[in-house]
User: What shape does this take?
Amino acid sequence: MMSIHGWASKGKWQNELTISLNRNHILSAPYNYGFRFFRASPWHIGRLVRKFRDWYFLTVDSQELGLQITDPLNRPSIMVHSLGTWIVARAIQKYPKIKFDKIFLFGSIIPSDFDWYNLIINDQVNSIIYEKANSDGVVPWSFIFTGSFNPSSKKGFSQESPFVEPVMVTKFGHSDFQYSERFKTYIQQRLYKEPHLLSIKRGRDLNHEQIKEYFKETLRIDLFENPQFI
Assistant: This one.
């Protein structure tokens, strides 16, 4: 499980998350980009995105973790907060080799019209779970970073899907998720859910035998839906 903190934060909650993960025999990989306050320009965000990109690939290539991100069942998940949500969103949009199993969003400042479907179909993310907190008084100011007045933590994502799942936390403020029992809930109830495994297979990437096998699979679907042909 990776993690990334928010703006004007030192990410102390990531230490609590690591303890919760270790208790469940899960490796923790926290990313801390440092305390940021006035650095909010597109140039600064772009620099943070590039630094996260480099850290991500360095981490997944670690022999200790043994990750194979081309395999949907062997990818990291990530918990992200506030500005971290925007950094991760921009990174996976820009760099298609960045792939996750599950992305957990807290205090998300990602705009509500963000295109998750394209990333799911491109096999970059299996599912997104985000907390929708009507009492979050901080995220409306996120237009400073994103240029949008519709942060998903308040408005929700406009794309509705079983793979883009809101968790309603009407009493929560911007950082109220940061405690061990909350982490435990996500680890035990959501982290182990099997990924959907949807992806596009392009003909140019397949050999002749693979293409024939896919047509056999689609024929079975037709026969199942039309049993009179069996």
Observations:
- Residues 200-230 form one domain.
